[in-house]
Amino acid sequence: MKNSDASSEMKFDGRALINGVRRAATSGATFDCVSPVDGRVLTQVARCDQSDVDDAVAAARAAFEDSRWRGKAPAQRKRIMIAFADQLLKHADELALTETLDMGKPVKYSRAVDVNSAANCLRWYGEAVDKIYDEIAPTASTGLALITREPVGVVGVIVPWNYPMIMAAWKIAPALAAGNSVVLKPSEKSPLTALRLAELALEAGIPPGVFNVVPGFGPEAGSPLALHMDVDCIAFTGSTRVGKQIHVMAGQSNLKRAWTELGGKSPNIVFADCPDLDRAVEAAVGSIFFNQGESCNAPSRLYVEASIKEAFLEKALALVPGYAPANPLDPATVMGAIVDRTQMNSVLRYIELGKSEGAKLLAGGEQALVASGGCYVQPTIFDGVKNEMTIAREEIFGPVLSVLSFTDAADVVRQANASVYGLQAAVWTRDINKAHGVARALRAGTVHVNQYDEDDITVPFGGFKQSGVGRDKSLHAFDKYTETKTTWIRIDSPV
Predict the structure, then answer these.
(1) Which residues of the chain fall below pLDDT 50?
(2) CA 482 to CA 60: how far, in whole Å?
(3) Which residues make beta-bridge pairs with 487?
(4) Residue 166: count of CB within 10 angstroms of its CB
């Protein structure tokens, strides 16, 4: 069956999942879940509020205190986490189609990237949890100091709409593997796969109450979770503006641990001695237009050395037609729909700002596929951009590339670092000294050299400055969801 045919037959359950049971919001309120593919209403979703968050946190706390999950041996939690990953792969086509209908990304990537990456994340943390050893401190012989990790308790998780499954997995996988209970608040723009993940977790053997999902809007469900006095840790991915509010709410409540992965305006620096210009062009274009540009780490600021800029742009513009927006349900589509009309209008507003501030529009710049009823924007490239322009400073979160030129390495590093963000960056050069020197000077959590966006679950993800606090992925993520305890035992030697 074709994806378009299958999508018309799909039914979605928008109710919350609390303590192992699907239920409506206490208030009975719902909101429409609208597909950006064609504007259709997919289902009504529970509009959870303080009352529902209280119920979910109470369920999570009860599950934590009676040790139904954290009391299991690490090897037992491992087996269940791996079974959870297997459930995602078993339902891969359903999850991919749901993600595409809900968020707008091409179904080929929902299936090959999002489902597989989420499953791999769950499996990896499951495999890791019974291979982490505690420590004994090198004290004097009169003492034995044990240094152990313990789960932090109830973890609140708030994730964005651009990679719903992957962002959820990056947080719930280490949190659950470590023995915590979780309350997840997905974005109201793309809540459906999170709700399905919670069902699959139950089917895999994660006990009721350990993983709860409360859909809803930020002020009504997200804020109560961040302010809750019985939540021990809050993990958030989203905008820097909201991330700052999360930290304030954590401090206003119980000083819960707050971990935030926030925005980015990543610089991509191409020197004239780039070892492979075609590869650099393909990476620059492909990475900014992937996921419709709705990626926090998108290399949206492209710095090209002046002597090669004309050749670079000629090659880049030749690739743009290949990223024309099309129906995301078509397996051949590589760029789909913007998540909703609000975000589409925001992207179009930034494009108008770019033109009004003097940048030169080379490609795109318009809404696409208007007759479809969906939310589509043409892949857009601006040249002649200056660092002080709005499109070079603010995160657009759409398929918009700003091109700047430079002649001096020290100057381009200064320009690249002149941002409130510091998530990722890249440098392209065949000079090993230049590569190391520029990479060291760039203030970013990840610096790519002669590639962009290569990735693995084994490496940490996060940023400097206002790009956030803490790291997702890798073993470092366990630091966010565990407490370090010292148990000091006095030894009076009998010999």
Answers:
(1) 1
(2) 16
(3) 146
(4) 21
